[in-house]
Design goal:
Elements (H helix, E strand, L loop, with lengths): L6 H22 L34 H15 L1 H11 L4 H28 L4 H14 L9 H25 L3 H31 L1 H13 L11 H10 L5 H16 L9 H42 L1
Length: about 325
């Protein structure tokens, strides 16, 4: 039975995997420039520069698209919190440090391009957006404080994939080909980041199966998106879920299950007694989450049917 590994031992054991996957990432990623995805010819001055301040009538986004764009952007804005989290749990030496810096630089482009798009197209109130950014970044986000490397790697694997799904679906919900193209580009980055972390977590499972599975289950049981603490998150999350941009079904079928299949969690034969118990607990968790997904879908279908009936009666 594999023994528990210390944080230092894990860092040493996984360093060759980090280096291999860093090189893989650099060979696959494509450089892009935020300014190439923004319709600058739509921009004009605000009142402070002699122009006109924002008015809701200027936006071509509906309430759902606004909620999704704001939520996704504020999530990206909190990058300093995420950088601190992985820097503290990884290392700033060697390939670990190179990855931390590269990942942070790539992630920063996401907030740049989304904000430029929203300000130039007047998609949302820029004053309210800035106030929300200040509040959210001041609060920060640290879901795995003092839990260590395995919890951080597990969390970012699921979170990067969840963010990819949310960005792709938000692009479609905007009803604007420019926004859709922009968010497809952002989602492509998130997918490569997810692959890096997924491969790293797979190597951790090989090195210390029970210990890593414990971290994975811990993360899944309390998983929250990075935007959980932002202003109006509950309202925005409900709008996003109602529209199918990101809901329990997305989380289960497009995020959790594909990653667990990739890791072959239910086919592995290298778990000890604790790992076998954890796998049973994970299976029960997935069954419960499936029930919640079905319940939410049924409630949403009834709600949408009532809304459609009210619209028909009013017409």
């Amino acid at each position: 039975m594999a023994r528990e590994m210390t944080q230092l031992e894990l860092l040493h054991e996984l360093q060759p995997v980090v280096e291999d996957n860093l090189n893989r990432h650099l060979s696959m990623t494509k450089d892009w420039h935020p300014h190439d995805y923004v319709p600058w010819d739509e921009g004009r001055n605000f009142a402070a520069m002699g122009g006109e301040d924002w008015d809701p009538e200027q936006s071509r986004l509906d309430d759902t698209a606004k909620a999704a764009m704001i939520t996704n952007l504020l999530t990206e804005d909190n990058l300093p919190s995420y950088h601190r989290e992985i820097a503290e749990n990884f290392s700033l030496d060697g390939p670990w440090g190179t990855w931390v810096g590269r990942w942070t630089a790539e992630e920063n482009r996401h907030g740049i391009v989304m904000r430029d798009y929203l300000v130039v197209t007047r998609g949302v109130d820029p004053v309210a957006l800035e106030q929300a950014r200040m509040e959210h970044m001041t609060t920060g986000f640290n879901p795995n404080a003092d839990k260590g490397l395995l919890h951080s790697v597990s969390y970012v694997t699921f979170q990067e994939l969840a963010t990819r799904v949310s960005h792709r679906n938000t692009g479609k919900a905007c009803g604007d080909p420019i926004a859709d193209r922009m968010l497809q580009r952002v989602a492509a980055d998130e997918n490569l980041h997810m692959i890096f972390y997924r491969n790293l977590c797979a190597a951790a499972l090989d090195a210390s199966p029970d210990q890593t599975l414990r971290a994975i289950l811990d993360i899944l049981k309390v998983f929250q998106m990075p935007g959980a603490g932002m202003p109006n998150f509950r309202r925005n999350a409900m709008l996003i879920a109602k529209a199918g941009i990101y809901d329990v079904r997305n989380h289960l079928d497009e995020v959790i299950r594909p990653v667990l299949r990739q890791w072959k969690i239910f086919e592995r034969t290298d778990f000890g007694a604790e790992g076998e118990n954890l796998r049973e607990e994970l299976d029960a968790f997935l069954t419960d989450l499936e029930g919640k997904a079905v319940k939410f879908e049924e409630q949403r279908d009834r709600m949408l049917a009532r809304e459609a009936a009210r619209r028909e009666a009013a017409s």
